Amino acid sequence: MNQTNTKMYNGIAPKLEDNVFIEGTAVLYGDITLKEDVSIWPMVAARGDVNTIFIGARSNIQDGSVLHVTRKSASNPNGNPLIIGEDVTVGHKAMLHGCTIGDRVLVGMGAIVMDGAVVGNDYIVGAGSLVPPHKVLEDGYLYVGNPVKKVRPLKTSEMEFLTVSADNYVRLKNEYLEQL
């Protein structure tokens, strides 16, 4: 597959594992790693220019999302890379900036997760929510609001949906790849 929408920055190009789909209007720059079965949908902008971006297997980044990182500095020697775990669904127009997202997470449409925030495993971050800088969320909960507040533990059906959502996007991605 021709990945003309992956761009080199300072001599570093995105690294793509097997069965990755990047829609033609998405653009990825620099030090980005996409593990197996990742899908990047229309109008996503991902800049691994001043730090690294890592996206785990079977995760999907939906339309219009922005992925960026924090530069290394004297006050923050490591900066803040963007780390996204496995089986993560990032909803339309979400913004993830120099944060860590664990496994089996749904980041709702239009949500913003800021520098140094840690969203562990098995979460739903509600649509339009703001996770402030350096906030650490407790595993297994629904968080909503601006700034986010822990609302309640996830129901069993919601926990199961987290992997179902990721699986649905792997299937959709495969359908798109078959049509290329």
Descriptive terms for the model:
13% helix, eight-stranded mixed sheet, 1 helix, single chain, 180 residues, UDP N-Acetylglucosamine Acyltransferase, domain 1, mainly beta, twelve-stranded parallel sheet
Q: Brief overview, please?
A:
InterPro entries: Hexapep, LbH_gamma_CA-like, Transf_Hexapept/Carb_Anhydrase, Trimer_LpxA-like_sf. This protein has one helix and 20 strands.
Can you put this structure into words, describing what you see?
The chain is mainly beta and 180 residues long. The chain has one domain: Hexapeptide repeat proteins (UDP N-Acetylglucosamine Acyltransferase, domain 1). It is 13% helix and 36% strand. The chain is built from 1 helix and 20 strands. It has one helix at residues 156-178, and strands at 6-7, 15-16, 21-22, 27-34, 39-40, 45-55, 60-61, 66-68, 82-84, 89-90, 95-97, 100-101, 105-107, 112-113, 118-119, 123-125, 130-131, 136-137, 141-144, 149-153. The strands form 2 sheets. Strands 1, 2, 4, 6, 8, 9, 11, 12, 14, 15, 17 and 18 form a 12-stranded parallel sheet that branches. An 8-stranded mixed sheet has the order 3-5-7-10-13-16-19-20. 44% of the residues are buried. The mean pLDDT is 96. InterPro entries: Hexapep, LbH_gamma_CA-like, Transf_Hexapept/Carb_Anhydrase, Trimer_LpxA-like_sf.
Total tally of structural domains: 1
Name the helix and strand elements from N-terminus to C-terminus, one letter apiece.
Answer: EEEEEEEEEEEEEEEEEEEEH
Low-confidence stretches: none
Mean pLDDT figure: 96
Say what the CATH topology is: UDP N-Acetylglucosamine Acyltransferase, domain 1
Q: Portion of residues in helices?
A: 10-25%
The CATH superfamily is Hexapeptide repeat proteins
Strand content: 35-45%
Distance between the termini: 8 Å
Instruction: Please tally the β strands and state the result.
Output: 20
Number of helices: 1
Name the shape in a single word.
globular
Classification by helices and strands: mainly beta
Gyration radius, in Å: 15 Å
Biggest sheet record: 12 strands, parallel
Q: Per CATH, which architecture? A: 3 Solenoid
- The CATH class label is Mainly Beta
Protein name: Gamma carbonic anhydrase family protein
Organism: Psychrosphaera aquimarina
